[in-house]
Write a structure and sequence with these properties.
Strand order of the largest sheet: 1-8-17-16-15-14-13-12-9-10-11
Distance between the termini: 27 Å
CATH architecture of the largest domain: 3-Layer(aba) Sandwich
CATH topology of the largest domain: UDP-N-acetylmuramoyl-L-alanine:D-glutamate ligase
CATH superfamily of the largest domain: Ribokinase
Largest sheet: 11 strands, mixed
Shape: elongated
Keywords: ATP-binding, Isomerase, Kinase, Lyase, Metal-binding, Multifunctional enzyme, NAD, NADP, Nucleotide-binding, Potassium, Transferase
Subunit structure: Homotetramer.
Number of domains: 2
Helix content: 40-55%
GO molecular function, one term: kinase activity
Number of strands: 17
Strand content: 5-15%
CATH class of the largest domain: Alpha Beta
Catalytic activity: (6S)-NADHX + ADP = AMP + phosphate + NADH + H(+); (6S)-NADPHX + ADP = AMP + phosphate + NADPH + H(+); (6R)-NADPHX = (6S)-NADPHX; (6R)-NADHX = (6S)-NADHX
Number of helices: 20
Protein name: Bifunctional NAD(P)H-hydrate repair enzyme
Radius of gyration: 26 Å
Bound molecules: ligand NAX, adenosine-5'-diphosphate, potassium ion
Length: about 475
């Protein structure tokens, strides 16, 4: 059994609406029980987060609405003043219609005036599977809502891509059922969800049979890190190489320092005569030489390369084709991405690409779908892992596995932060981790280092600060994987 099969639908796996439908089909005889549990759990969370107040539950015609009727019943049972505003009635004989029948409390019109009278509105109009624009009257209604708790997603959020089908409600709290959705982690939806809490509704294990997770929240359980062994030497830890440009040495310095601080055994920097003299001074911990790329790749220990940080078009041109020809494991960033301007095929053979959105568009053209789908498509087409950077970094593998990282901080938005990330990925690739796992781990460690550095430095950091926290950040991941580095 492969690693990804073993971890199918662990708690950090994310559920798409399509997978929810498959589960529901499998569990058809228990759906009423699941809806009852879902409604009860949402009501309990509301009771935990809010004082008793006038609640209006806005219910749609589907099962999301069905959950809403159950919430209303529980809150009313605890003595809260509750009304229900149906946007449309559930279809006769449906599960939601049965839940609606059991609601014997007040029913009011689905109107802005009613929304304004409430102190809290429960959004149970549409779940995560909506695939058409939000109806006007729904938009208008939610524009007048004081405080909102959403079931599954705020109505109008696409549960997979995080896109919004119009102006979606702004929730304070969103209750995810069974597992989070990819959309909960992706902008712009994340900004509309408020706090996302996932609840267990008693979904049995068997409901997951036949399903294979494709999306995960990026957490350390996704990528076991290699341990330190008594017998380790620098070459077993792994060698990272990079070509140091003659004009922008800072970027190569950030990438090489980051690789070393993350655990690479050795970092080798090749450069021109002019560059090598400089790198010998600024990188005392690295082996610096003046070898041509052609000669460098003859050394079988130098298989993993960072290519791009601080390189001009000409420098990339003189290095990257040789590295790819020699089938080295290349992490392509910055200058290497600019070199491929509109011609992604030039990067064929690269293991990992790390574009931010601007670089992504430069290589692959405008994003016509969503960032998520564009990264997946680019990964499939090129055969490279795509790390599409941002506040919600997407890490897409050519086989479809996709992780979304929220373990980060806006303190990372500082020049050189991307060079640091490429060095971390290289160090983990050099340690023997497969490209997707190494990329996911690197993005998490980068985020953790950013958080720790920001805490230590009062919130504002530069790339140099980030680098000094990489060892601690890797250790934090190891601790949460319960790995001991002093076995
Ligand atoms: N397995 C699970 O995870 C469970 C999910 N449950 C709930 O089930 C929900 C999903 O239920 P559904 O698949 O019924 O989805 P929805 O509740 O989102 O309902 C969609 C319904 O709205 C209609 N609709 C959508 N847009 C419309 C428009 N513009 N005009 C008119 N009608 C429109 C559709 O035809 C469909 O009937 C989840 O959000 C969750 O709340 C719970 O009941 C418990 C179990
Ligand atoms: N607002 C933010 N929240 C979380 N992470 C961020 C944010 N802004 C930037 N980052 C992260 O910081 C890094 C910036 O990389 P990049 O844009 O390549 O910068 P540079 O080229 O200056 O090194 C990426 O890993 C990105 O995900
Ligand atoms: K909803």
């Amino acid at each position: 059994m492969s690693h990804s099969e073993r971890m199918s639908f662990e708690t950090n796996a994310l559920l798409t609406p399509h997978e929810t439908l498959q589960m529901d089909a499998h569990m058809s005889s228990s759906l009423e029980f699941l809806m009852e549990n879902a409604g009860a759990m949402v009501a309990r969370l509301i009771r935990q987060h809010f004082k008793s107040c006038r609640v209006l539950v806005a219910c749609g015609p589907g099962n999301n609405g069905g959950d809403g009727y159950v919430v209303a019943r529980y809150l009313q049972g605890w003595g809260w003043p509750v009304s229900v505003a149906p946007w449309k009635k559930p279809q006769h004989g449906s599960l939601a219609a049965r839940a609606a029948q059991e609601w014997t409390g007040p029913i009011v019109a689905f109107e802005a005036a009613e929304a304004m009278r409430a102190e809290l509105v429960v959004d149970a109009v549409f779940g995560a599977g909506l695939s058409r624009p939000l109806p006007e009257d729904v938009v208008h209604f939610f524009q007048h809502v004081p405080r909102c708790v959403a079931i599954d997603v705020p109505s109008g959020v696409d549960g997979v891509t995080g896109a919004c089908w119009g102006e979606v409600p702004q929730a304070l709290l969103t209750v995810a059922l069974v597992r989070k959705r990819p959309g909960h982690l992706l902008e712009p939806a994340t900004g509309r969800c408020g706090q996302v809490v996932c609840v267990d509704i008693g979904m049995p294990e068997e409901a997951f049979s036949g399903l294979k997770a494709r999306y995960w929240e990026n957490t350390p359980s996704l990528w076991p890190l290699p341990l330190q062994y008594e017998q380790d030497h620098k070459y077993t830890r792994g060698v990272v190489s990079l070509y140091g440009g003659a004009h922008m040495p800072g970027a190569a310095r950030f990438a090489s320092d980051s690789a070393r601080h993350t655990g690479a055994g050795l970092v080798c920097v090749s450069s021109s005569e002019e560059g090598a003299a400089l790198y010998r001074t600024v990188l005392p911990g690295c082996v610096v030489d003046q070898k041509t790329p052609y000669d460098s790749v003859k050394d079988q220990r130098r298989r993993v390369w960072v290519c791009g940080p601080g390189l001009t078009f000409k420098e990339v041109e003189s290095v990257l084709p040789t590295l790819l020809e020699a089938q080295c494991h290349v992490i392509a960033d910055a200058g290497a991405l600019a070199w491929a301007d509109g011609l992604p095929e030039k990067l064929r053979g690269v293991k990992v690409m790390t574009p931010h959105l601007g670089e992504f568009v430069r290589v692959f053209g405008p994003v016509r779908t969503s960032r998520l789908e564009a990264a997946q498509q680019a990964s499939k087409e090129t055969g490279s892992v795509i790390v599409l950077k941002g506040a919600d970094t997407v890490i897409a593998a050519p086989d479809g596995r996709t992780a979304i990282n929220r373990h980060a901080t806006p303190a990372l938005a500082t020049a050189g932060s991307g060079d640091v990330l490429s060095g971390i990925i290289a160090a983990l690739c050099a340690s023997g981790m497969p490209a997707w796992e190494a990329s996911c781990a690197a993005v998490w460690i980068h985020g953790e280092a950013g958080r720790q550095a920001a805490q230590a430095k009062g919130g504002w950091i530069v790339a140099e600060d980030l680098i000094t926290f990489l060892g601690k950040a890797r250790h934090a991941a190891e601790k949460s994987q319960k790995l001991s580095i002093n076995r």
